[in-house]
Amino acid sequence: MEHVPPPAEELARLDRELAELDARRAQLLTRRAWLLAALRPPAPAAAPGWNPSAWGAPPPGRPGAPAQPWGYVPKQPSAPRSAQNVLLTLGGLLLAVAAVAFTLVSWGSMGIGGRSAVLAAVTLGALTAPAVLLRRGLTATAEALAALALVLTLLDVYAVHAVAAPDTDGLGFTAVAAAVLAALWTAYGLALGKLRLPLPAAVVLAQWPLLFWAWAADAPAVVVGWALLATAVLDGVIALRGKGPGVRVTACVGGSAMGFSALMVGLALSTTASGPLGAAVPGALLLAAAAAALAGAWRAPKGFARTGGAVAGLAAVAAVGGVPAAALSDGWRTLAYLLCGLALAGVVRAGLPRDAMRGVLAASGAVVAGALMWALPPLAAVLLGPVTLLSDVWAGSPDGFRSALGSTLPWSELAAAPVVLALVAGLLGSAYRWWPSVERIAAPLGAPEETPKPDAASNAPGTPDAASNTAAAPDAASTAPGTPEAAWTAPPGAGAPWYTAGGAGARRRPSGAALRGAAGAGALALGWGALLLAGVVLDLPYAVAVAGETALVGGLLALAVRSAGNGRGASAVPVTALVGAVSGAVSVGLLSLASEGASYAVFGALAVLFAGAAVRVGAEVPRAVLAVASVVWGTVLTGFAGRSLDLDPHEAAPLVLVVPALTVLLGARLRRNPVALPVELTGAVGALVAVGLAVSDAPFLALVLALCGVLAAGAAVRPERRPVAGSLAAALFVLATWVRLAASDVSFPEAYTLPVTVPALVVGVARRRRDPEASSWTAYGPGLAATLLPSLAVAWTDTDWLRPLLLGVAALVITLLGARHRLQALLVLGGVVLALDGLHELAPYVAQVAGALPRWLPPALAGLLLLAVGATYEQRLRDARRLKDALGRMR
User: Fold this and answer.
1) Residue 4, Cβ neighbours under 10 Å: how many?
2) Rounded to whole angstroms, how far apart are CA atoms 351 and 689?
């Protein structure tokens, strides 16, 4: 458990840390001022007693000079280095071009003596001149001539091969020449230590002798790999012990390239070997590469140590796993590499440096992740394959599990996939079960960083660094055992959180409980996937596969119910079990669509299992999810019933409403239970599905709408559902009436709607007298809408003038009554109907006028309207707000 201090103790600790930060900031500012004063040249006419180093302030400027900001450092006159470098670069380039032209063009016109004399003189002069220039302090010029000398030596090699030894093998000569030049430039760079070019150039030249020698000798690929590895090892030694950053960076880049090439050669030979003996030879190469990488990681800095450890781990897996993999079929090779990758976890007992150990463990994790990525596609095929059965429901039971999936995967080559998943699941499950032991074994990975000792010279008494380092050191009393600071900075495994509370680089790490929960969740998910894949690999009979998947769903539900809310910090396990149960239920439900009997059995079992789990589980969120899933499975069962009875979709729609009716009754039973609302909403979705099924037949649609209105009215009996369910019930009843009238081809709907409107308005008046605060929409809205809206729909298709006239008069009267008594429903309904009725009457005349007007006039009028609205936009907004407020004040 993480230690949480009391508020008073935590406040005192924060105050103490803030005080330390303020003191540290003051010391840093003093140090900065001292450095600025040290970098600033002494003023020629400083005021008496002025001491910049003591006060940390800039000296006074010259009289009449503009004032400079605090901390300003004046620029000192310096030599034009940039121009000098450009001139030297251009000069060296021109000399190099001249040397190339001489070698390629003028070389053949001279005798052997002249050639030798010119070659020796120019090369010797280019190599000697930098030493003379360095003694005179001309370092940049010496660097330029050294670059020219490097080009000349390369041209000398080419000239010697072209004239003195034209019949020698080019690759072999190049190997010897590269070795000689590498040795020459190494000695030259060590002799002239101030030059930065010779030693990196020697490192570059040293990359090629062994490689060109192997090619020249027509050596097999494994010998080429050894040559590359030997070159990489040499680069690693130079990178660790080389002189200067240029040499080390060049060696690091070259070693990375050569080492990667050697690993690729060894891996290619190992994976294509014809047998274990053939894989042992490249395996030795890979093991040697692993040893070299691990040796380099032992002494390399932090980031390089982790990279070296990872490379060593991957190379070791490829070497050791390639031998048994060469004797196995393609489907089982992954298992051999996986076992070797898992064996790398034993590095925690090997006593390696921590960063190298982390790199090796990262390699182990990469191998495991690769094996899982290989096994997950067939698992996805098992879960998603039954989707193909939706196109031909109840076509008949297939022969086996594979034929039901409709997948073309080579299942015989994937026989190791369930074994891979089961093996990783077993290891994760063991870690979850014995987590304290895992934490104890992994304790070296969380050891604190080693802090380098401060330089004694920089911390001498009297220097600014001494004060800074003294302030940076934590107070011994504040970090004593038992204090809050000790708990915040304790390492993992010491009973404290795995993070530090001070410093900008602090970062939070997952707690032990979270990691344990992740291990348990991974074990559960992979174990479930292993069982599914095993059924496909064995090609179980269809009935056994369906029954097995349903049993797995039941097991996951039982685990979710048992693990939810156990308070042991492993909340990921019940969540994973719940997600797996829902996913497995969908998969097995799709799989059961091949057979009618299987469909009823599976969805019935799923509905019962999920309902039982919803009753037993204690947490609210899992209970809601399980209850919703149970409602969905029940709704699917009612759809199956309609299909079994050979009913058309619109005829099966009333059957689908059985489950929504049960959800209404269940909601009345649950009352204010948090699960009630999700269950009722899911039932409402089922009712919406029933409406969609009945759309093709108007009489059945009216019936379904009326039944939905009954269900909504039943839900409206409860006070907490009344505001929404009551309005919905009224709307559904009115809509059912309209659909029924339209389906019966009724030309005078008023004969049917007025007998409903009059009693509805009487009930509304009685309601308003009993409760003056009741909304006009509740009292009068349903009754008025029952007549006005159907009449408006018929009036728009009526060519006679009587109906629109009577409807307009009625709408006008209703609008006036609404305005007189400040009733929102009457005003809005009457006004909308009156406007639409008037628009219907004016439509023919508007069409005639529009046809008689020029075509440019409507766009012009529209533009003028937009300009007018834009010019008075703010006023229109205020008018709209006033209208909204006026309507809002109405009942």
Assistant:
1) 11
2) 65
**Phi and psi, residue 742, nearest 5°:** -65, -35
Q: Are 103 and 154 in contact (CB under 8 A)?
A: no
Token output for 222:
């494994």
Contacts of residue 546, Cβ cutoff 8 Å, sequence gap at least 6: 588, 591, 592, 598, 601, 602
Backbone CA torsion sign across 102, 106, 108, 113: negative
Query: Residue 605 corresponds to which amino acid?
Result: A
d(C-alpha 281, C-alpha 735), whole Å: 82
In order, the DSSP letters of 674-724 are TTHHHHHHHHHHHHHHHHHHHTT-HHHHHHHHHHHHHHHHHHHTSTTTHHH
CB within 8 Å of 612: residues ≥ 6 apart = none
471 vs 776, residue with greater confidence: 776
Close Cβ partners of 402 (under 8 Å, ≥ 6 residues apart): 411, 536, 539
pTM: 0.67
Cβ proximity of 490 and 501 under 8 Å: no
Phi, psi of 454, rounded to the nearest 5 degrees? -70, 150
Alpha helices in 744-856 (DSSP H): 750-770, 776-779, 781-795, 802-821, 824-852
Which residue type is seen at 520?
G
CB atoms closer than 10 angstroms to residue 702: 21
Taking each helix axis from N to C end, the angle separating 302-325 and 333-343, rounded to the nearest 10 degrees, works out to 140
For 752, list phi and psi in degrees, rounded to 5: -105, -30
Residues 61/64/70/76 CA torsion (nearest 10 deg): -60
Three-state SS for 82-126 is HHHHHHHHHHHHHHHHHHHHHHHHHHHHCCHHHHHHHHHHHHHHH
Query: Measured between alpha carbons, how far is 294 from 851 in angstroms, rounded to an integer?
Result: 89
| Maximum CA extent, the chain | 130
Task: Say whether 418 sits in a helix, a strand or coil.
Answer: helix
DSSP letters for 747-779: S-THHHHHHHHHHHHHHHHHHHHH-TTS-HHHH
Strand partners, 541: 400
127 alpha carbon, distance to own chain's centre: 57
| Residues 443, 449, 450: CA angle, nearest 5 degrees | 120
Q: Per residue in 544-558, pLDDT tens?
A: 999 999 999 999 999
Angle at 311 between CA 306 and CA 317, to 5 degrees: 125
Residue type, 119: L
216-to-212, 238, 292, 656 alpha-carbon distances in Å: 6, 26, 26, 82
At residue 475 the predicted structure's pLDDT band, cuts being 50, 70 and 90, is: very low
DSSP 8-state symbol, 413: G
Distance between CA 608 and CA 35 in Å, rounded? Answer: 79
Residue with token string 């809050």: 484
User: In this structure, what token pair is assigned to residue 793?
Assistant: 């729909």
Answer with the residue of higher pLDDT: 74 or 837: 837
Note the pLDDT tens digit of each residue in 423-454.
999 999 988 888 888 777 777 666 544 444 44
Which phi and psi angles does 657 have, rounded to 5°? -75, 0
Q: Which amino acid is at 616?
A: R
Sign of torsion, CA 142 148 154 159? negative
Give Rg (Cα) of the chain: 44
Q: Are 654 and 704 in contact (CB under 8 A)?
A: yes
What one-character-per-residue DSSP string does 137-194 give? T-HHHHHHHHHHHHHHHHHHHHHIIIII-TTS-HHHHHHHHHHHHHHHHHHHHHHSTT
Using CA atoms of 187, 191, 192, 195 in order, give the dihedral in degrees to the nearest 10. 30
SS (H, E, C) 237-252: HHHHHCCCHHHHHHHH
Average pLDDT of the chain to the nearest whole number: 78
CB-based contacts of 223, cutoff 8 Å, min separation 6:
214, 217
Give the DSSP per-residue string, 203-266. Answer: HHHTTSHHHHHHHHTT--HHHHHHHHHHHHHHHHHHHHH-SSHHHHHHHHHHHHHHHHHHHHHH
